[in-house]
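Box 4.2: Ligand-aware structure prediction
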Amino acid sequence: MSAPPDTREVILEARELTREFDGVKALDRFSFQLHRGEVLGLLGANGAGKTTAMNCLLGLTLPTGGDLFAFGLELQRHRIQILQRSNFSSAYTALPGNLLVGQNLLVFAKIYGVKDPKAKIAELMELLEISHLSKRVTGQLSAGESTRVNLVKAFLNDPELLMLDEPTASLDPDIADKVRKVVRKVQRERNIGILYTSHNMRDIEEVCDRVIFLHKGRIVCEGTPAQILARSSSSSLEDVFIKIARDGEIVDEA
Amino acid sequence: MNLQTISALVLRYLFLYTRTPMRMVELVFWPVVDLVVWGNVTVFIQKNTNPEFGNFVLFFLGGMILWDIMFRAQQGVAISFLEDVWTRNLLNVFVAPVRTTEYVSATFIVGFLRIVVTAIVLSLISWFGYTFNVFTLSWWLIPFFANLMLFGWSLGMISTALILRWGQAAESLAWAIPFFFQPAVAVFYRVEDMPAWSQPIAWCFPPTYIFEGMRDVMKSGSMNWSYLWTSAGLNLLYLALAGWLFLWILNLTRKRGLLTKFATQ
Ligand SMILES: Nc1ncnc2c1ncn2[C@@H]1O[C@H](COP(=O)(O)OP(=O)(O)OP(=O)(O)O)[C@@H](O)[C@H]1O
Ligand SMILES: [Mg+2]
């Protein structure tokens, strides 16, 4: 059973993306397309190549092979133009800890050229239920609070394309749930295309329309969570994950 | 180049200076200590020795103040970059629509603002406190400061490039780099007092012309104009070279995939 082809505009595309580090391929001819309004999950064990893929797609790391396009434009050549329409958030970056939350967000709103920065920041903080944090020192926030502040930053420029690298890492189940719901809500309202990595299968099932499993830089399988479950003999995505991590493939029962 | 982007980045550093007053203290403290200590020494020596020697100490004090201007400009560039490294903010900046030239321009402006603060403080103290005052140099100060600032910017970019290349292990270079040049640029002595073999080297660096010029102005009230032009010309050359080095290393860092390692750890 194959899904009908997705006719929405392709906003992000990798063609045979390859990235070697000292002779080892972190990504090996990795190709995919992300459509407008689609949430694509990138799954795989530690070291599978998810972050490397995102870094290449953000222009932070240069690929050793292959071609990258966003909004139909070649990535390196139109980097600034593309970044203006995109955004990124990760549990592993932070906004300057010595500034107030409101100051940090104001600076980034101005960098992204947001028209009415104060109003935009207030609106997004309200949406993520962190309006009370505006006057707090960024470095003193808890992991959950700072994740949500990072998400406000990521939504500031009304991105059409968003890359989220483990946005729910280190969140408690309650906050993780809230974050997922907000991401999903904003994503639907504004028809954002999201590339999403997570080790939390709950995240993936709730947020992603489609997932790609990577193993050692290569695609092992892809499809909607339901399709993948149907194709494997596993009862949960978590089992699929473990099988792929250990064997490098979805093993069918003989 | 987008002015709004640059001003947003500068705003980030201004917030930083107002949020953490220790940074302002650092900006004012060392210049003041230097000036007071050496100002007192100057007064002491002027009272106790013949005028010729007093003059010599005046040169020393002038050299110290001008050196400090260059150092502040270099720090403005290098420390601004390090602030983004320390706070793991670099990635946010690099994934935002910020051109490298805009980022570097913002650090230049911070370097300039640091000079303005330092210069005002030093001028006020030397004006009220000492027979020596910076304004002996009158309007010569403007081209002096400008040239030293340009070289400070170049050194700042070189420091930043080295930190990008060698990571945080190279951080102390942010403070050390200007001092690699100090012996060669005749801050506290005349070029003719340097060993003969090192004199041609001294003339390769823009600040040498400024420090020589400063002593001429103090002694005779004027200086060789060609010194200023040579210094400015060399400065443009160094800025271009430092900018090229910075871009080259930034690109190398992207190629090696180290930009993110370095920005998140
Ligand atoms: N700059 C680098 N230099 C050398 N090797 C690197 C570099 N960056 C990544 N790698 C290697 O590339 C491989 C893929 O790493 P990557 O960070 O993309 O994994 P990941 O899927 O994001 O893993 P995780 O789930 O742990 O975040 C790993 O083997 C890693 O060691
Ligand atoms: Mg990762």
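In the box above, the bound molecule is adenosine-5'-triphosphate. Chain B touches chain A through 34 residues (CB under 8 Å).
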